[in-house]
Amino acid sequence: MVLSVERLSKAYGGVQAVRDVSFSVAAGEMVAIIGPNGAGKTTCFNMLNGQLSPDSGDIRLGGSSIAGVPPHRIWRLGVGRTFQVTATFGSMSVRENVQTALRSFYRENFSFGRAAGARYVEEADALLERVGMRDQGERACAVLAYGDLKRVELAVALANRPRLLLMDEPTAGMAPEERGALMQLVVDLARRERLAVLFTEHDMSMVFGYASRVIVLHQGEVIAEGLPEAIRNDARVREVYLGDA
Amino acid sequence: MLACARSTLATLEVKQLSAGYERARVLFNISLEARAGEAVALLGPNGAGKSTTLKAIMGLVSPTSGDIVFNGRALRGLEPYEIARLGLGYVPEDRRIFTDLTVAENIEVARQAPRAGASTWNEERLFKLFPALAALRDRRGGRMSGGEQQMLCIARTLAGNPSAVLLDEPSEGLAPLVVEQMARAILEIKRARVTIVLAEQSRHFAGRVADRTYVLDKGVIRSA
Amino acid sequence: MSGSALLLQFLNGLAGASSLFLIAAGLSLIFGVSRIVNFAHGSLFMLGMYVCVWLAPKVGYWASVPLAAMLVALCGALIEVGLLRRIYKAPELLQLLATFALVLVIKDFALWAWGPEDLLGPRAPGLTGAVPIAGRQFPQYDLFLIAIGPAFFVLLHLLLTRTRFGILVRAATEDREMASALGVNQRGLFTAVFALGAALAGIGGALAIPREPANLEIDLAVVSDAFVVVVVGGMGSIPGAFLAALLIAEIKAFCIGLGYSELTLVAEFIVMAVVLIARPWGLLGRPIAELRGRDQADFRLAATKPMLAMLAVLALVPIATSGYALVLLTDVLVFVIFAVSLHLLLGPAGMVSFGHAAYFGLGAYGAGLLVLRYEAPMELALLAAPLLALTGAAVFGWLCVRLSGIYLAMLTLALAQIVWSVVYQWDSVTGGSNGLVGIWPAEWLASRPAYYFLALVVCALSVGALWRIVGSPFGQALRACRDSPLRSEAIGINVRAQQWAAFAIAGTFAGVAGSLYAFSKGSISPETLSVPRSVDALVMVLLGGVQTLVGPVLGAALFTWLEDSVSREVAYWRAGIGAVILLLVLALPYGIGGLLRKWSSR
Lengths: 245, 224, 602
What we know:
The complex is a heterotrimer of chains A (245), B (224) and C (602). With 245 residues, chain A is α/β, with parallel strands linked by helices. Chain A is built from nine helices and ten strands. Chain B has 224 residues and is α/β, with parallel strands linked by helices. Chain B is 34% helix and 29% strand. In chain B, 49% of the residues are buried.
């Protein structure tokens, strides 16, 4: 298992946001976490990448615990992440965004002597190639279409050659026709590079179309887990989340 | 005769509306309308653009194109407070109760003078609509349960004596019993001739209160 | 210390807390609804003092207090309508600068209207005596002040909880947008709140008159005290302001009572540090949603060649003249280093420092002390002095990077004010208000051209080094932290460490400028590290433009020249500079650099 989560719990503001959640993700697998708003998906995610410390329970990445480790260290252990609302460096070009991640990967954040611009250009372009953004490397992130920003984020998330990719609503805000293409890209990456992918998503066609396994959260607890088809027909899931739609 | 003419006239009309946040496009040429006294549901999954539609109507999100007309007035470009003072009420999805303020104070913030042609809601009538709130009059908003907050949020909006309200997923995250109360309250509001636009994920809930339904999917109206 | 002395100190502290509370409460209220930190709040306090002294002989002291409050409130309302309303959506930095410009304008107005001398006001009729407390005499008026604080706390509490106005203020403080969607028009509300806050400052000033004379220096002293109170108590929280005012005033009273008035500031600093580490949003505060407007992207003007050409021209200047122009140019070079070092924080790091002069001053005083007290050779002092600045920046930076946005800006100001006070009060070491004299360069550098060349070389090296740093992987990671802290952490950048290092580097180069400055002037005074000096640096950077490194170079040159010529020819030059800042904020938000880029891209 690349990622295994054991009895994870977190409360804040008197609300039990996540309660005793356990699951695991294997290499090459695409696992979706779904559930109504407030079910604890984002809290879960933020604990996995270190923005929040769990109250109890454990998160193990390839066997070693990462619970409570700050985000910048977790990244060094091989966890890439994309955000629900894209977080890119708005004052930089597309290539510079990826270069910044690469320089961080090669531990150059405190390097003063060299000029940053010329470093890892080819490697950055190779990453952009993988997400189909190579020809837009020179463009400023500020002028990019939203779907393209999501691709840039993906390239940035891949810069540390992650074992695990966390994607919080990867297709939110994208035009309908762009969504499938992005998910297909991720599926191919996961297969080709034996990447473990965990994502949340509200667009059920993306979940049932691309996930290899689905976990359903409701009021902070896992209420169902299984193959997409089984989840789609699960009575409890239909009741609290999918409805009859 | 007059009543009949009024009922066919759209109170709220949204024409070819597109909107989004910074570069994220959310709505693509949405058109919909609600007639006086009618309850219209905007049905769709999470992320379909329901909240954005309501926010754009309320002036909280700037549309990139399209028109919004309320009682004959164009709303685009108006400040949210100006829209609220025209008699359009808004109940946000995340409730946005003023947590430092008591129930009575929350209601006070939204109070407006009685409006000609619209129902008047004083505190007494609001507490009759939501009896649970009466006992919590001096409770701070931050110390209430989700269901109580939802009631307060609707009561607060009604305190402005609106002729129409936008309700963003009022049944979201509530226990089944509270959902039932909520449905009854909304029907009560509808009986008071307040026009209702309801964003909802649950077809069941929408079916109970709405006269008509629009299905919104990925920022596009699929069917009406 | 005996029990009775202890009691008396405690009472002294309570009296001090009252006026501190009045001013901090106003600051906090205004921030709560408008999200603007009103730098000019101390100036409104000062205005209250002067108006009171002016009116008291005409109408009597007690009548002058409410009149002062009303006049200051009116002034506040005018400021809100005429200026602040136009900049609510501007970046925080510009808002702070605009209110600082008001500080300058109001100061010169007071100078013009009431003259430069301290004005002693009347004592409060009916409260001129003293009461025996625990065997000692305690002034009646101080007892009255003790009651005033809680009285206003209760009044404000009633206003905020029992009136529709108060309820709307609290609603807007919590969620402006939702209040608007419920039909609350905020324009009137903002004006009223600003007037109310100004009235509180005015009352505070008028009530201070029986205890101290009206003077032109009180504005910044009061506002930085208020900043400390608000940072400790929590921005936007009135009970927090009350609690913090008590805490700070008591600490001050006891330090003075124990005979360690120098300790006051250190104690204040420690309290602030402890509070901020344990509760970053203050004792009773809560996190503030950042309202920062998206900044324009950075750009690099293709300026290497012009800069090198300029360097060559500058190297030839001593052939043409060895007169005053050389002195002025040396000043320019010093301030170019200073401004460019601040630019590292403002630009790539995105941190607003209102206390950069602290490091400039530490460099200057470090140089002075090494030469005068330790008789170090000048060359060594010039090199070693920036290390003092580095130490200061490392200590303060460690605290500052825990905060962001407005809190960070206020903290830098409060910390710089503490350094200033220490230097000002520590007579035996720093020479107090007289400063240090006789800091001369080594003989081979003593001539004007020689020192000019030294400044030119140091300036070129410093600007080059900072240029390099901005373009290095470190500088780019810093920019990344500014653009998106969230994403930066998610790609392995330790945001705090990165920003801390930036603080230390910027402080060191400011120290270089400071030590160069000390030897060029031969004497230094606490003014070297005062808040206005910090603001000078901000104006230089903004004048030039934050988005490019060429900006601060141009800005520093223009500003230094302007200040030199304006201050010699115009009596009220501070107001003039204030007016320039206001113009800049309202008309030229991207500085000269922005203008150049606009032209060059045509």
